[in-house]
Design a protein that fits this description.
Organism: Colletotrichum gloeosporioides (Anthracnose fungus)
Shape: globular
Number of strands: 12
Domain DUF3669: 268-332
Radius of gyration: 21 Å
Strand content: 5-15%
Pfam family, one: DUF3669
InterPro entries: Znf_prot_DUF3669
Protein name: DUF3669 domain-containing protein
Helix content: 25-40%
Amino acid sequence: MAAVQPNMITQFTSNHSAGPLKHIGEGACGSVWCASSKSSPYSANTPLVLKREDMSNVRSITHEAEIHHHILQALANPRVATTLTTFRVNVPLSHGLLHHTNSAAWSQILPRLPAGYTACSALVSEKVHPFPFRVRKLLLEQLTACEDPQKVAQGHMNTHCLIRAYLGKRINSRVEEDARPAHLKKLRPYILRNFPLCVDQMEDLELNVDGYALAMADALAFMHWTAKVDANDVEFVLGQRRSDKTRQTLPCIGKKDFESAALGPHALWVLDFDCCRKMSMDEEGIKTACKSFWRNDQYYPRPGSNNPSDQRLWAVFREQFLKTSDGLLEGENEGVKKLPVMLMDMIKETKGRSLRGALVSDDRIEGQK
């Protein structure tokens, strides 16, 4: 994996600024930092993020960098541009790996991190721009029992607001909202970082649920048949879209932009590839892909729901996945061409039997209405 170029880490260094780096997220693999949480996609400079390998002994940032690079290379396949023409899914541009042995770079970065932090391997990539104050306040007003949305939306923990788009989950799937004990509504702190948004909430906000389903279907088909990875534990988040200057040139799947009254112009992004693995183009590969589908959070629509809207959304997702798969696999042998239908059938047949299937989709998200 190529090492990051020195000019790509300048904004993280003490030579650039003496102010602390902003902690904007963390996951099983590592913590995520940026130079400023106030930048926008329309800034003169391209804001980046630094994802450190400091949260796990079993997750590898080097592996994530390699898979991320592999996916970006797969986007260059000419069939991608001609086949994937519906709604856009952005893939953050990766600038390479900062090795833990690069003492010159870390000596300039560590002064901007909290005391006790040490050098480690880190991935430098494009920043997904968070939603502005107006959207943060609206989410709190519409979807939580927050008593002071304006104050909470301005809190430093909430300035980096990205939305996890859960098309396979309804927040009110088990009981009517009126039957929910009032005290449960205030158990969860109102943190807008990685805000979970379920499909019924999207419907209430009049978001383009079908468009998200089409885009996710295209992205999954691309990852399986062009990049040939299992898409294990990837995330789909909503954030601001890129600037007009960069939107047509930076890595993406699809062509159409999203816009709504609630969120304004926005984009769907796919990220976090540290758990992805290469998959074989045979039945064993399909089993791996099916397992990854059910292990992941509930981003994709899911089969087998009793809700008519969910049944329709699964049909939209399935039809688009198969249509896109046909285009991407044109010219392949018949055995490979059968894999997309095999996968969709296997997903339906294994509902509720895999590691994290439909049983999880009934869980509620505390702190929201």
